[in-house]
TrEMBL record, chain A:
Cleavable signal peptide: none
Name this protein carries in UniProt: Phenylacetate-CoA oxygenase subunit PaaJ
InterPro entries per record: Fe-S_Maturation_MIP18, FSCA_dom_sf, MIP18-like, PaaD-like, Zn_ribbon_PaaD
UniProt domain MIP18 family-like: residue ranges: 16-77
Location of the PaaD zinc beta ribbon domain: 129-169
Organism: Enteractinococcus helveticum
Segments traversing the membrane: none
One Pfam family hit: Zn_ribbon_PaaD
SUPFAM superfamilies tied to this protein: Fe-S cluster assembly (FSCA) domain-like
Automatic annotation (TrEMBL), chain B:
Coiled coil: none
Gene Ontology terms: cellular component: cytosol
Short name of any one Pfam family annotated for the protein: PaaA_PaaC
Domain of life, per lineage: Bacteria
Protein name per Swiss-Prot or TrEMBL: Phenylacetate-CoA oxygenase
Species this protein is from: Enteractinococcus helveticum
Cross-referenced InterPro entries: Aromatic_CoA_ox/epox, Ferritin-like, Ferritin-like_SF, PaaA_PaaC, PaaC
GO biological process, one term: phenylacetate catabolic process
Gene3D superfamilies noted in UniProt: 1.20.1260.10
Amino acid sequence: MTAASATLRPTDTVGQELWDAVRNVPDPEVPVLTIEDLGILRGVELVDGKAVVTITPTYSGCPAMETISRDVIQALAGAGYQDSAVNLVLTPAWTTDWMSDDGKRKLEEYGIAPPSGKAAVNGPIMIQMAVKCPQCHSLNTREVTRFGSTACKALYTCNDCLEPFDYFKVH
Amino acid sequence: MSFASSDSATRQSAGDAITPEDIIAAGGKAPEDVATYALYLGDDALMLAQRLGYWISRAPEMEEDVALANIAQDQLGHARFLLSYAGSAWGKTEDDLAYFRDANDFRSCRLVEQENGDFGQTIARQLIFATYQYELFSRLVESQDETIAAVAAKALKEVMYHLDHAAQWTLRLGDGTEESHRRMQEGLYYMWPYVEELFADDDLLRDLAERGIAVLPSTLRESFDQRIQPIIEQATLELPNVTGAYGGDRLGRFSEHRSHILGEMQVLARQFPGATW
């Protein structure tokens, strides 16, 4: 578990039980990643017996949020919380910096290059670090298109092994 | 105004419609003037999303199908947040506002409603609008209205991609072949008369800007010019020297294209109220 999610995981027993009930809900588009890995699980709390889970979208139009919300509700029901709600927050805006190291490793094993480097904070220039091919680990890769199969990914190709691959963009 | 009040077909969460924490903190209801401002911003995003969606399966290369669809999806995401927030003032859902308002109730600018034309014309619109949105959202992140500020912060990161995409294509087309240069230049000439309107102030904007909620559009013009001019020059293109198109404001005088866009966008929801898919 990363520092980021460790600080978000509640310290009280009830909170931890809730967190653990939903942390493994997968991202429907990148099923190797959980919502905890992605850093979109932002908080859990019990309000008057109602389980409230807070998540944040990766991109504004991300269609996976609806599926994730339903899956969270279902996971809560499975853990015995019939009365529950999913809260969607926009601030602070999600960044790939919140992705856990475990998540990055799982991404690479799955064949998607994890985000390379940190998101710039109000930087004047977007610096693109080299992207490592998840197949042969070469750094000799090139961007085919910045917009990939989903909003969060770009399409790359490896100049050495010639395999195309998805890259999870620094955001 | 005639709004239907069927349930939203595209709810953001399994529970209620979108509920940013700040909407809850504010009692879940936008003040009416802020709601109208949210319509200004949200309707721009919605119209542009609808226009860009046309390119899916029609772009010059498959990567562009995906890129323009991605950009459209981002804009649609912004529109959903903003229309949901606006709707809270009048007890309306995002779908009520998108599908059951008539043309004269929308508050979009004319630029986003202009025809796609060829790829050069679409890129010209993208370049202008992304530059404008980048400057606007860079300032709106400090809005006194927490929901507007939150949407701007989220959108800004996405608009940076849109701007980069448009700038790269402008360079490639402008400094490309004789034909690509000609088309890109014509695209800029077609779109430029609608630039002025983006920076026009009105009473609502002046009032909201004074209270730190909105950004006064006229104050964005200088940074817009400074950002877009070098791109156009580097692309060996000419900055169009044209006067603004006559008429047009966000309060009712709108482009002749709007009704056609709505005809396409609203037909299903109106013919089959409550339909989900």
